[in-house]
Specification:
The protein has two domains: 136 residues, Response regulator (Rossmann fold, 3-Layer(aba) Sandwich), CATH 3.40.50.2300; 56 residues, Arc Repressor Mutant, subunit A, CATH 1.10.10. The chain is built from ten helices and five strands. The N and C termini lie far apart (47 Å).
């Protein structure tokens, strides 16, 4: 590097789809002040690659085989508190955004974002900013108004989404059917819905549950 030259922003791209990684790398590498120096296709690879290369910015896909993007982000940010992770996703559910930021991501960006928004976000996060878009900020604010579901309620809700009856849920979770009924009642109240169908729809829309 010549005297006075600025160091490029080193970016790691994490996505399980080769074509997506190529597209992101192509968009980034044409910029004079940044370069993709590392790639990973799973969450486990991302954690290992971060330890080895310490990139300035991580573009992390939300849904990955093995550990999720949220889990990989949490692992990286726990071990390296200064890590700068930008979560990328096709999902705009408020729960996905909330979990990502709770895990340590600096911001959340949809894969449908324009190229200039991606580049501007990388620069902003590298400069120490959160760079939360108005749309993502609105979704996050909406999430903060809702009460949290317990881990057991999430378990029950996941089975409701799969169409299980109370009796089937009780058998799957090894709990009494009356206990399942109590959990379902709490879920309906917390989600502000009237029935199981609405609960399932809301769970998918908000990103509380993802279909496998």
């Amino acid at each position: 590097m010549t005297a006075g030259a600025k160091k490029k922003i080193c970016v790691m791209v994490v996505d399980d789809h080769f074509v997506v990684r190529m597209g992101l790398s192509g968009s980034i590498n044409v910029e004079a002040d940044m370069a993709v120096t590392t790639e990973a296709s799973t969450g486990e690879q991302a954690v290992a690659a971060y330890r080895q290369h310490r990139p300035d910015i991580v573009l992390m896909d939300l849904k990955l085989p093995g550990i999720s993007g949220v889990e990989a982000t949490k692992a990286i940010c726990t071990e390296f508190p200064g890590a700068a992770v930008i979560m990328l996703s096709t999902h705009d559910g408020e729960e996905d955004i909330y979990r990502s930021l709770q895990a340590g991501a600096r911001t959340y960006l949809l894969k449908t974002a324009a190229r200039n928004e991606l580049i501007d976000t990388i620069r902003a996060v590298h400069a120490g900013q959160r760079a939360i878009s108005p749309a993502v900020g609105a979704r996050l604010a909406e999430r903060m108004m809702h009460p949290d579901l317990t881990a057991r309620e999430i378990d029950v809700l996941r089975l409701i989404v799969k169409g299980r009856s109370n009796k089937e849920i009780a058998a799957d979770l090894f709990i009494a059917e009356v206990t399942v009924k109590l959990h379902v009642g709490h879920i309906l109240t917390k989600l502000s819905v009237n029935d199981r169908t609405q609960a399932a729809t809301t769970a998918l829309q908000r990103g509380l549950i993802h279909l496998e």
